[in-house]
Design a protein that fits this description.
The protein has 356 residues and is of the alpha/beta class. The chain is built from eleven helices and 13 strands. The protein binds pyridoxal-5'-phosphate. The site of pyridoxal-5'-phosphate has 15 residues, from helix 3 and helix 4.
């Protein structure tokens, strides 16, 4: 039996008729850019999230960049984020013109260590960007409290955590503007690149839509110089179909994770993921910590089981951040994590037999 790390094809087969019909309609109507399919997805995503605005963009990286630019984050500012994420989170801070300041992760849940944030706040700190890594909510109570106390803008990177929840509220509803990726393998994935920003702030929503649409809300009315970052009609139509299934998929991911936890609980040298109290984890990634990680990965591979590492090098240790001069001692938890973390196959369509 070959077990892939993710299996997007089996999901397509479960929705084939709906998806084919949606794509066909977009092509028939030539509704490729903007138009009713994009508007419909924005409306249903905002509605399901219980927020006033959803602005679709080209990908989750652009979503972060657009938020930082439109919040006025730039030269002279510092933005605090976690040591363990995909580079989009930090590169967009730099690209907006600010300086990225990393904080180590907590040993139990792998999200930003809230006890180490305050010591990194300076008079230049403008924003705090938690990442709900693997689909697990960061400690939002403490994060909100720090943002209030130090007047920081809160931006949540929800690329891995569609519809995860913290104390009954969905992640993506705590920050001032919060970002999503619909990269194909994300919990809610398009058939190409796509992303979105949600916010309850009318003025910010307007600014972000304008910036991402060549600086204008009407054709030829360019109020500023912007960029071109949109979700196309095909992706929006596909996402609208898939949005109707996301809750069930997330529930299955959670059930699979609980089963993995149960089956792995007595294996020495392997630590299974824990879930923060009062949180709903959506298990975009199911990652264990293994003392002999590389050997385990090779063993699984020899048995036809694909795995992945999220991430082999924590952000501060990447060549891209050599200029910050960080070493393993600056982020000991993230460093241990990069040596031991191993992600097992995870997708809603996994079978009991495959998990066993
Ligand atoms: C996937 C991801 C992104 C970037 O999304 P793209 O759509 O691939 O640009 C940003 N942040 C995190 C945490 C991600 O996992």
């Amino acid at each position: 039996m070959q077990i892939p790390f993710v299996d997007l094809k089996s999901q397509y087969y479960t929705l084939r008729q709906e998806i084919d019909a949606a794509m066909h309609a977009v092509i028939e109507e030539s509704a490729f850019i903007e138009g009713k399919y994009v508007a419909a997805f924005e409306q249903s995503f905002a509605q399901k999230y219980g927020v006033r605005h959803c602005i679709t963009v080209a990908n989750g990286t652009d979503a972060l960049f657009i938020v930082f630019k439109c919040l006025g984050i730039g030269t002279g500012d510092e933005v605090i984020t976690t040591a363990s994420s995909w580079i989009s989170t930090s590169q967009t801070i730099t690209q907006a013109g600010a300086r990225v300041v990393f904080v180590d992760i907590e040993p139990r849940y792998y999200t930003i260590d809230v006890n180490q944030i305050e010591s990194k706040i300076t008079s230049r700190t403008k924003a705090l960007v938690p990442v709900h890594l693997y689909g697990h909510p960061a400690a939002m109570d403490a994060i909100q409290e720090l943002c209030r106390k130090h007047h920081l803008l809160l931006v949540e990177d929800c690329a891995q955590a569609h519809f995860a929840a913290y104390k009954g509220a969905r992640v993506g509803t705590f920050g001032f503007a919060n970002t999503f990726s619909f990269y194909p393998a994300k919990n809610l994935g398009a058939y190409g690149d796509a992303g979105a920003i949600v916010t309850n702030d009318d003025a910010l929503a307007r600014a972000m839509r304008m910036f991402s649409r060549y600086g204008g809300l009407e054709k030829h009315q360019h109020e500023i110089e912007g960029i071109n970052s949109r979700t196309d009609g095909l992706q929006a139509a596909i996402l609208s179909v898939k949005l109707q299934h996301i809750d069930g998929w997330n529930q299955r991911r959670l059930a699979h994770a609980c089963l993995y936890n149960e089956l792995l609980k007595d294996i020495p040298g392997v630590t299974t993921p824990q879930i923060r109290q009062d949180s709903t984890h959506v298990f975009h990634v199911y990652a264990v910590m293994a003392k002999r990680r590389d050997e385990l990965q090779q063993f699984l591979s020899s048995r036809g089981i694909a795995t992945a590492i999220h991430y082999p090098v924590a952000l501060p240790f990447l060549p891209a951040y050599r200029y910050l001069g960080h070493g393993p001692d600056d982020f000991p938890v993230a460093y241990q994590h990069q040596l031991q973390t191993l992600s097992l196959p995870m997708y809603p369509e996994l079978s009991r037999e495959q998990i066993d």
